[in-house]
Specification:
Growth Hormone, Chain: A, 433 residues, single chain, 22 helices, CP family cyanate transporter-like MFS transporter, mainly alpha
Length: 433
């Protein structure tokens, strides 16, 4: 409550809500450049940092592996410090990691791992903040679009920044610490979320989205405890969907530029196409969470996106160099829509803010642990086969499995970690701040 009072002092509810949303968007923009900046210049890394070329697959895997082991940190810190402070600290740590890994070559790998941990700590709290503020699909869409915009800026600006900074690749990577510090200031000022206050409102934590729309509340039912998250099938289906789409995303962003170079495309143009992959998907990452709010569309969208990603991957594999701009753009659209839907499912399929936070930690924790196999597996397949055909066919097969996970994620009861509740009469709604 102290964080809530400090953040909201002198500000009206609408202004505070706008500040929270602005902080969320800025936070989201900061959670991908740490990965895509390196992916866009992967071929330069061994020469500049003295890294053994055989360790490049590990460099691409480390941040995702860090995601997998640091999922519980965000909710744990939020319970002790408040959500805004927890996210702000994570972004400060991210800024430090980006600076250290770029300026001290021996710390490139440890710094990348630490950056991944900081990103995950902040990332898992995004759905919790959205749920606590009763954000619509547009909230989730703006956040997922922020992820895509950050990824595109990281990949597209790394080489121009390198040229602007006198050819220094380390400084072109370290400069991304500055927006991380700006994001930390914004999210700290907003207080992040009133979720602690929402816990004290009548059923504010356990109400489903349907109950909220009706203006009703829930009250605890004595003697009924919540089913553990690990025993809820919907939670595992959402986790599988999140992990599989993340596995595809990180495999693509780690190796797409290298693949395009092997097709005879210049390195600078390949890095630009990697940025285009993210930019092309921005509208889809915004609209997918909005469309997911409509049950009729969701039934088609969840499994359909997996099949679309499979077809797009095979299109990139088969297309000549002149058509890669089109095919990479299509792949960016369907892949970004999949990420937007994955984030939306965490909000839509959870019963309240605490449930959203726990489901977010589970889906992103286990999901990114699975996703860490993407860059490593794709790189090893390429090394073993000497080409890219097998790699792309395996990724397309994974996208088909993603379609199955989407089918099951939208069925079954909502995920809830709160005490079982029953509907009560409609009453006054809690304020956002």
């Amino acid at each position: 409550m102290r964080e809530k009072r400090q953040a909201g002092a002198g500000l009206g509810p609408r202004l505070m809500t706008g500040l929270v949303l602005l902080g969320l968007v800025m936070l989201s923009i900061n959670l991908r450049p740490a990965i895509t900046t390196v992916a866009g210049v992967m071929n330069q890394v061994p020469g500049v940092f003295g890294l053994d070329p055989s360790l490049l697959p590990l460099l691409g895997t480390l941040p995702v592996l860090a995601f997998g082991v640091s999922g519980p940190i965000g909710p744990w810190l939020a319970r002790r410090w408040g959500t805004g402070r927890a996210v702000a600290v994570a972004l400060v740590v991210l800024a430090a990691a980006l600076t250290v890994r770029a300026t001290v070559p021996a710390l490139l790998l440890p710094g990348t791992f630490l950056a991944g941990m900081a990103i995950m700590t902040a990332s898992v709290l995004v759905p919790q903040i959205v749920k606590a503020n009763r954000g619509t699909g547009w909230w989730t869409g703006l956040c997922t679009m922020g992820f895509g915009l950050g990824a595109a800026l990281g990949a597209g600006l790394v080489q121009p920044l390198q040229h602007l900074l006198g050819g220094s690749l380390p400084w072109a990577l370290a400069v991304w610490a500055l927006p991380a510090l700006v994001g930390a200031s914004l999210i700290y000022r907003s207080g992040g979320t009133p979720w602690k206050g929402a816990d004290r409102t009548k059923g504010g934590d356990a109400s489903s989205s349907a109950d909220t729309n009706r203006g009703g509340t829930n009250v605890p039912v004595p003697g009924k405890s919540a089913t553990p998250l690990r025993k809820q099938r919907t939670a595992w289906a959402v986790t599988a969907f999140f992990g599989l789409q993340a596995m595809l995303y990180f495999a693509i962003t780690s190796w797409l530029a290298v693949y395009l170079v092997s097709r005879g495309i210049a390195p600078a143009e390949s890095a630009a196409l990697l940025a285009w992959f993210s930019l092309a998907g921005l509208p889809a990452s915004l609209l997918a969470p909005v469309l997911a709010g409509r049950p009729g569309i969701l039934k088609i969208l969840a499994p359909g996106l997996g099949l679309s990603v499979a077809l797009a991957l095979l299109g990139v594999l088969a297309a000549p160099a002149e058509l890669q701009f089109v095919m990479v753009g299509i792949l960016g659209v369907v892949q970004s829509a999949g990420f937007g839907l994955a984030m939306a499912l965490v909000v839509i399929r959870s019963a309240g803010p605490q449930s959203a936070g726990r489901l977010s930690a589970m889906s992103q924790g286990f999901g990114f642990a699975l996703a860490s196999l993407g860059p490593l597996g794709a790189g090893l397949l390429h090394t073993l086969t000497g080409g890219w055909e097998v790699t792309f066919w395996v990724l397309a097969a994974e996208a088909v499995v993603l379609a199955g996970a989407g089918f099951f994620a939208i069925r079954g009861p909502l995920v809830s970690v709160e005490q079982a509740t029953a509907a009560a009469e409609p009453g006054p709604q809690p304020t956002l701040v």
